[in-house]
């Protein structure tokens, strides 16, 4: 069974429903129409609805290890399916990749897991390897590389997303905007990538 705290929360969920009945009934009757698809990490410390103060129905959320979207054609259908569905069927206007500091998936690039014992983990994180390689080639001091890798991985996954026809075509039409953000666990700061200046700026 889940922890007592979660069980108590589950029991309170009906009260929360009653307090927000109009919203939940509207979502049930009318369906979802989020404007944002958010791709972020499965890390339990990253709770996108809390970080962004989002209400139910505002974001279509995909979570996985290290907020990865494998490029089209590799046979990893989950993230691509979420992106395609959000763009083609929900008509989202913004696609946001949210990385975070102290990401265990990216740390694993430095200490690769046993490919026999953790086959799926080892295979999955290789989709972030080019980000690490780029940072290592940049000659940054060792203490600056972890954050640089988090940032570079966000940009890499945005490029992977552009390998999907639905995303690429919508961006070219101007109906979809792609965004890269990083959440700092240690102080709650959020920063975004500015594609014009190619710099990261605090929100």
Architecture overview:
This protein is of the alpha/beta class and 203 residues long. Helix content is 43%, strand content 17%. The protein is built from nine helices and six strands. It has helices spanning 4-19, 21-30, 48-51, 77-88, 104-107, 119-125, 129-137, 145-161, 165-173, and strands spanning 36-41, 59-64, 94-100, 177-183, 190-194, 199-202. A six-stranded mixed beta sheet has the order 2-1-3-4-5-6, with helices on one face. A hairpin with a 4-residue loop joins strand 5 and strand 6. Helix 4 packs parallel to helix 9 (165-173). The longest helix has 17 residues, at 145-161. The radius of gyration is 18 Å and the shape is globular. The mean pLDDT is 95.
Q: What's the quick description here?
A:
The protein has 203 residues and is α/β, with parallel strands linked by helices. The protein is built from 9 helices and 6 strands, in the order H-H-E-H-E-H-E-H-H-H-H-H-E-E-E. A 6-stranded mixed sheet has the order 2-1-3-4-5-6, covered by helices on one side.
Total number of strands: 6
Mean pLDDT: 95
Class based on secondary structure composition and strand pairing: alpha/beta
The profile of the biggest β sheet is:
6 strands, mixed
In percent, how helical is the residue content? 40-55%
Strand content: 15-25%
Report the C-alpha radius of gyration, rounded.
18 Å
> How many distinct helices?
9
Strand order across the largest sheet: 2-1-3-4-5-6
End-to-end Cα distance, whole Å, is 40 Å
Question: What ranges have pLDDT less than 50 throughout 5 or more consecutive residues?
Answer: none
Shape: globular
Question: What's the order of the H and E elements?
Answer: HHEHEHEHHHHHEEE
């Amino acid at each position: 069974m889940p922890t007592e705290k979660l069980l108590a929360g589950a029991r309170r969920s009906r009260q929360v429903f009653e307090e927000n009945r109009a919203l939940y009934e509207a979502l049930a009757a009318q369906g979802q129409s989020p404007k944002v698809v958010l791709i972020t990490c499965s890390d339990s410390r990253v709770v996108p609805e809390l970080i962004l103060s989002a209400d139910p129905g505002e974001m279509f959320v995909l979570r996985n290890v290290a907020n990865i979207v494998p490029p089209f054609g590799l046979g990893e259908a989950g993230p691509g399916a979420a992106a395609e569905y959000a763009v083609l069927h929900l008509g989202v206007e913004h696609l946001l990749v949210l990385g975070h500091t102290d990401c265990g998936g990216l740390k694993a690039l430095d200490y690769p897991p046993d490919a026999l014992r953790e086959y799926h983990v080892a295979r999955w994180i290789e989709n972030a390897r080019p980000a690490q390689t780029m940072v290592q080639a940049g000659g940054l001091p060792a203490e600056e590389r972890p954050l640089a890798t988090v940032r570079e991985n966000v940009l890499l996954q945005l490029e992977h997303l552009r390998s999907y026809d639905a995303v690429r075509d919508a961006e070219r039409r101007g109906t979809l905007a792609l965004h890269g953000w990083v959440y700092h666990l240690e102080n709650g700061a959020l920063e975004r990538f500015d594609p014009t200046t190619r710099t990261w700026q605090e929100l």
